[in-house]
Specification:
The structure is a homodimer of 323-residue chains. Chain A is α/β, with parallel strands linked by helices and 323 residues long. The first copy, chain A, is built from 14 helices and 10 strands.
């Protein structure tokens, strides 16, 4: 872990620059409301629907900021990452928009559907064995061969500044809220949220929502230092990764609280949202609503923002279908 | 079947009056686009998302127009219908908004989930046996006992004028299209579309989309008279009902063509829309896209409106899950 002084901590000016840079490449996603869910929770909920975002997730904000912030010389060598999730799709999408290569290192055992999705956005996949050592070795080889710029899924100031554009739009669209709730995995979205709201609306409480079965951020928050779990299992598969030094900086400085929900509560909230709001969203996006439903008294009577982070779901494997 | 002279054929003035009457009770639903589906079809598609409508379907437009158009004396006796689908939900919702009873006659064999949904919107269910004779007898008894006003799901000028408000909004939101495609079952939505577009944009082609396995409207259109099938089977369960004299009037007068799609094509288009547009919609809503995909040359290069009619899906029974 690097020492703090080495870190470049992005500022709100970086968010503003990011927003101008990425605006032509992303959607200004809608904010939806639901009278049914308002009645159920007693709160006034505002859902920022990044499931409707380009490449299907908020991660295209940070990825686009990284890609379009490169000099022409750096950009020509392309970008690279290791991810089999939304960051890989988003970086591939952004690189495609700039017309540069995007190298993605993925385990050969990753589902074919995920590989096809990355290729569908123009990503170039190099397969590794399903181990950390193989991934690191293969990634180093790809980077050495191509000179591509590494873009980390979340522990990168360019990425965090990009994610910060989401809350900026949200505040313009809603005129403000009392509490903002977003899921926490590696902490990229929550860090961007902290970065923006601490500058433009410091009175807003920021609550991170996490699966009980991958509650490393919750335990880090209580302990005062990063705790990383080895391969936690949760249906909210976007939230399995640990905090890193940059995201930990924002979490410990600006997050009001971290609330957790069980697997069953997450699946129930996911299905309820699909059924009543008629939107397709990932299990990870249901963690905020699950925590709001189980901590009703804390949210009732408040204006509450909820970030729906993505919509890239395997429709053949929905978690409420057993077996 | 009544003779034509007896029918009250609604006019565009009725649509305007309906729109003013129902505006406080419905959503002005968004129009969404998808770069992926535009590329796939070669057309520029505009999806009017009535799956986000109150009570989850466009039918709340017609139902609200009927309910809020009643005199206070008539309204006090309530409204009644026989339906186990979106019309029952919509009429219950509208009656609830006016604070009057809504009586719904449903077969006792209807799924508990559908009964619960109607009750959730305040509808009062009277059960009948699952036969036409029982339904008619029970409905007559309910009407005699309550004096409630019968609101037919589609063969009613108030309902058709209400559905006509959807295309009016759509044209304002998009600035116009070359072709408008909507699914056809009983013909309420397509009749409302014909009523509005023939008045404000008569140059727009109106295409009705129908399941091959319930193609009674297609065959009626070719034959020049109503053909009604007995209990057709299709995954697009909102489209099983036959045309009636009032909807047939609009279909034969204003519809440009009727296109059909197979069950597999409908399910594929449904899953594709969920996967790429991240919206939950009923199988019936996928019939337009299915027909556009299989008649690509007819739509390519055109601005095409598609009405997504509703989002009330049983999430435990998705048609791409076998068994």
């Amino acid at each position: 872990m690097k020492d703090l002084p080495e870190m470049h901590i992005p500022t709100y000016d970086d968010v503003l620059a990011a927003h101008e840079r990425i605006a032509p490449h992303i959607h200004r996603t809608p904010v939806l409301t639901s009278s049914f869910l308002n009645e159920l929770t007693g709160a006034q909920l505002f859902f920022k629907c990044e499931n409707f975002q380009k490449a299907g997730a908020f991660k295209v904000r940070g990825a686009s900021n990284a890609v379009f912030g490169l000099s022409d010389a750096d950009a020509a060598r392309g970008v690279a990452t290791h991810s089999s999730g939304n960051h890989a799709l988003s970086l591939s999408y952004a690189a495609g928009r700039r017309g540069i290569p995007c190298h993605v290192v993925m385990p050969r055992t990753a589902p074919e559907a995920k590989k096809a999705a990355v290729r569908g956005y123009g990503g170039i996949i190099t397969e590794c064995e399903p181990s950390t050592s193989s991934r690191e070795a293969v990634f180093a080889e790809v980077q050495a061969r191509t000179g591509a710029e590494f873009v980390h899924p979340y522990n990168d100031p360019r990425v965090i500044a990009g994610q910060g554009t989401c809350s900026r739009e949200f505040m313009e669209q809603t005129g403000g809220v009392d509490i903002m709730v977003a899921p926490i995995g590696g902490g990229g979205m929550i860090s961007g949220t902290c970065l923006t709201l601490s500058h433009i609306a410091p009175e807003v409480q920021i609550i991170a929502a996490e699966p009980e079965q991958a509650d490393d951020a919750f335990r880090s928050f209580k302990a005062g230092h990063i705790i990383a779990d080895d391969a936690p299992e949760t249906v909210a598969d976007g939230l399995k990764v640990p905090l890193k030094e940059l995201t930990w900086h924002f979490v410990k400085t600006h997050v009001t609280d971290i609330l957790t929900a069980s697997e069953e509560e997450i699946i129930d909230a996911m299905k309820l949202t699909w059924a009543r709001m008629k939107i397709v969203m990932e299990p990870s996006c249901a963690v905020p609503l699950a925590t709001i439903l189980k901590n009703r008294e804390r949210f009732a009577g408040k204006r509450v923002g909820v970030i729906i982070t993505g919509g890239n779901v395997d429709l053949d494997k929905l978690p409420w279908f057993k077996g």
